[in-house]
Please model this.
Amino acid sequence: MNNKIKSFANLTFYPMTQPSVGCIATGVLESGLNITVTGGNHGQQADGIDTYLVEVSDTRGKHKEEPKIVTKRNMATDDLRSLIEHHFRNRNRVRRRY
Model:
């Protein structure tokens, strides 16, 4: 999963293996967080065309063994573009850890 995601255009969707029938794209955001985007699977609200199920997880540092899910929700295409753009703009920002 070393595919750097800098924009929505960098997402490359691949068909899921059987029995799933949807599509999936994975990669690493510029902030270092992992992103998985799926859509079109049976029983899933996200259709893979206009809406997607997006999961952003953190596997850095102490989360290597058990990834921390940062966000997991259905997003429209514009929301997904905004999320990727946000991580690209804030890639050099240092997060405070409490």
In short: The first strand starts at residue 4 and ends at 5. The chain has one domain: 4-89. Residues 4-89 form one domain.
